[in-house]
UniProtKB/TrEMBL annotation:
GO terms for MF: RNA binding; rRNA (guanine-N2-)-methyltransferase activity; rRNA (guanine-N7-)-methyltransferase activity
Name of the protein this chain belongs to: THUMP domain-containing protein
Residues of the THUMP domain: 44-154
Key words of the record: Methyltransferase, RNA-binding, Transferase
SMART domains: THUMP
Species classification: Bacteria, Deltaproteobacteria, Bradymonadales, Microvenatoraceae, Microvenator
InterPro entries: RlmKL-like_Mtase (IPR000241), RlmKL-like_Mtase_CS (IPR053943), RlmL_1st (IPR054170), SAM-dependent_MTases_sf (IPR029063), THUMP_dom (IPR004114)
């Protein structure tokens, strides 16, 4: 059976997600606003939930219909044979998003819920329950103009929940965003050559873990605890088990050739959290995490990639500038020959690093609009007048 899927993506990540899906063998993946659409078997959809590092979730389309009122949405949702998807014991939740439409998304969700409940009641006099916090099945409705699409969310509660974030520190970066920064920083190509990786302000270790998973060919979804589809009536456990087994074999092989992956931070609790998270990711013996202040950081190899997320809190602009200056000093003094991908809050803070960028990208980091700045750390790219 051929399904239509939509891989949702953060703003600006649509092309990266489409390319990532194509590299997985999903040839017709096409970037659209908000994500990438693709068609394929259920196994293709599962593969995307297991291997996409940058998609927010993978939606499986159940039905699409024209609807310009809440009643029309109700009728369209009611036409879906829900007993093929859930039983009376299955809990569900519905959320709705819209673009270019006038319908109130909250009311649409309520109407859609009524449609499902009424369909079950009519057939059985009973109804399945709603669980907004932790549903067995998450249903997403998207309305674009007058076209309503009802999806099953295969990646609920979100593909960024890889299962390794046991402890957090201040302002951890979202896993999917960290992965996109590594991709744009050229890490997949460098990692294939066995290059070294360093995050000298690693906090809870997100970049370190994501970089190690990419380099060791570890599926980001391998450690996910909650799956969006294991209580779905059409779930194909055999297909999913096959994918899991393949991912385990690729991980075991990938870990054999992993290059040096290091994370350091000045704060003890940050390193404790990073170690705990690396352990949860099965990487405790494969990455090096140590409490070291920036000025004492030394590269683990002659070349590699630095990816980091220095503090850029808006309330402490001056402190943030000083930390950026210090990071620039550390990179210029010790990391000549390396590349760097740094996410920061503004161009002004980026200038404090003291090097000319080779490329910049806009990045949404939660509610903050940030920039990623890529550097080749070479003597000719340093602003000598500022040093
Ligand atoms: C925004 S957080 C990084 C969050 C991290 N990317 C994560 O996902 O958890 C910035 C980190 O920089 C560290 N830091 C600040 N000043 C530092 C310094 N001088 N040397 C080393 N680390 C420093 C902080 O302890 C904090 O963990």
């Amino acid at each position: 059976m051929k399904y239509t899927f939509f891989a949702t993506a953060g703003r600006g990540l649509e092309d990266l997600v489409a390319k990532e899906l194509q590299e997985m063998g999903i040839k017709d993946a096409k970037a659209l606003r908000g994500g990438a659409r693709f068609t394929g078997s259920l196994e293709d959809g599962y593969r995307a939930t297991l291997w996409s590092r940058m998609a927010s979730t993978i939606l499986l389309s159940l039905s699409s219909f024209k609807a310009d009122s809440n009643e029309a949405v109700y009728n369209g949702v009611r036409r879906i044979p829900w007993d093929e998807h859930l039983s009376l014991e299955t809990t569900f939740a519905i959320s709705t998003t819209s673009t270019r439409a006038n319908l109130n998304t909250h009311f649409v969700s309520l109407k859609a819920k009524d449609a499902i409940v009424d369909q079950f009641r009519k057939a059985t006099q009973e109804r399945p329950n709603v669980d907004v916090e932790n549903p067995d099945l998450a249903i997403q409705i998207h309305i674009d103009k007058d076209l309503t699409t009802v999806y099953l969310d295969l990646g609920n509660p979100g593909l960024h929940k890889r299962g390794y974030r046991v402890l957090s520190t201040d302002a951890p970066i979202r896993e999917t965003v960290a992965a996109s920064i590594l991709v744009r920083g050229g890490w997949p190509e460098l990692a294939k050559q066995g290059a070294a990786f360093m995050d000298p302000m690693c906090g809870s270790g997100t970049f370190v873990i994501e970089a190690a998973m990419m380099a060791a060919d570890i599926a980001p979804g391998l450690g996910r605890v909650d799956l969006g589809f294991d209580r779905w009536k059409k779930h194909d456990q055999k297909a999913f088990s096959g994918l899991l087994q393949e991912a385990q074999e690729r991980r075991d092989k990938g870990l054999e050739t992993l290059g040096p992956i290091h994370g350091t931070d000045v704060a003890g609790p940050a390193i404790a959290a990073a170690k705990r998270n690396a352990e949860a990711a099965g990487l405790a013996h494969h990455v090096h995490l140590e409490r070291v202040p920036l000025m004492n950081v030394r590269p683990p190899a002659p070349t590699g990639l630095v990816a980091t997320n220095p503090p850029y809190g808006h309330r402490f602009e001056e402190d943030a500038a000083a930390v950026h200056y210090e990071l620039g000093e550390a990179l210029i003094n010790e990391f000549i020959g390396w590349k760097a991908a740094i996410i920061t809050g503004s161009k002004e803070l980026g200038r404090e690093l003291g090097m000319r960028a080779i490329k910049t990208f806009n990045v949404d980091n939660g509610p903050l609009r940030c920039i990623q700045i890529n550097f080749d750390i070479q003597p000719e790219r340093i602003f000598h007048e500022r040093r």
